[in-house]
Amino acid sequence: MMRILATASLLALVWGPARSADVLPIFDAHLHYSHDAWQSVPVSEAVAILRNAGLKRAMVSSSDDEGTQRLYAAAPDLIVPELRPYRTRGEIGTWMRDESVVGYVEERLKKYRYVAIGEFHIYGADADLPVMRRLVQLAKQYGLFLHAHSDADAVDRLFAQDPTARILWAHAGFAPPETVRAMLRKHANLWCDLAFRSDHAAGGKLDAAWRAAFLEFPDRFMVGTDTFTPERWHYIGEHANFSRTWLADLPKGVAERIAWRTGDAVFGRMMEGR
After folding, report:
1. Cα separation of 75 and 149, whole Å?
2. Which of the residues 21, 75, 86, 220 has an alpha carbon 20 to 30 A from that of 148?
3. Is residue 170 packed enough to be buried (19+ CB in 10 Å), middle (13-18) or exposed (0-12)?
4. Among 120, 95, 119, which Cα is nearest to 222's?
5. Among 187, 190, 195, which residue's Cα sits nearest to residue 170?
6. Which of 113, 101, 228, 224 is nearest to 169 (CA)?
7. Hey, which residues does 146 pair with through a beta bridge?
């Protein structure tokens, strides 16, 4: 990860804020604006960071949901809201056994507009627990994606519950490219974000196995930063520039789809009601 930040820092110094019309837009599919970021990165500063990074849109969840709603109210043209089932970040390991989560999610879904439930952490057989099963049902009821930080086993279990589900696999499961390709072949309604990964593009040049995955499935990948701690908000611009560097090593059409067109086509249209 330090290699990413070092490379991105150099790019940021050279390019500055990504405002030029010829800079590749980015749809960032994995951001959080949780309670521990609200004071250190106020709403106005957070929105400015996203715009200066050249983001076309940013998909944001938060613990609790108030952070997402604050950003969306300030920049509805930019923010794509998703609903995280956590009230605090400390619920990452317990939420799937906490029945009160269901009531919280149901209440928020009735009150606000979202494109997804997540990002949530679920592994293996825990995907079959009652709380997770209810979230799968709610996603189907409201026509939402599930944004799952999961292993392949959990993803398979979620699709077994609802074969028509649409899942965004956070971090592409931290799985090797061969596994990712096998999962994408297996599940037509599976997409992957590449948040907090660097193995696909060491030194800004694409790994051969990942290149094959991107060329086989150009419409199933999205980039993401993952601001899981407040300080990572200050790396959003650098990460966008890092992404632009390795995307330039792909055919232009493929690069544009991974950079922003897929995210915009899937989630942007959901926000626009198309």
Report:
1. 26
2. 75
3. buried
4. 119
5. 195
6. 224
7. 117, 167
Alpha carbon separation from 99 to 17, 104, 129, 136, 214 (Å, rounded):
44, 9, 10, 14, 39
Nearest to 48 by CA among 12, 8, 27, 78: 78
- Encoding tokens for residue 35? 């309670």
Spell out the per-residue pLDDT of the chain, length 274, in tens. Answer: 433 344 344 333 333 444 555 899 999 999 999 999 999 999 999 999 999 999 999 999 999 999 999 999 999 999 999 999 999 988 999 999 999 999 999 999 999 999 999 999 999 999 999 999 999 999 999 999 999 999 999 999 999 999 999 999 999 999 999 999 999 999 999 999 999 999 999 877 899 999 999 999 999 999 999 999 999 999 999 999 999 999 999 999 999 999 999 999 999 889 987 4
Compute, in degrees rounded to 10, the torsion defined by CA atoms 222, 228, 233, 238.
-50
DSSP 80-141: EE-B-S-SSGGGTTTGGG-THHHHHHHHHHHHS--SEEEEEEE-GGGGGSHHHHHHHHHHHH
Q: Across the strands, what pairs with 59?
A: 80
Q: Tokens 């928020």: give the residue.
A: 108
Asked if 222 contacts 58 with a C-beta cutoff of 8 angstroms, the reply is no
Classify the phi-psi angles of 16: left when phi > 0, otherwise alpha if psi is within -120 to 50, otherwise beta: left
Distance CA 212, CA 185 (A): 13
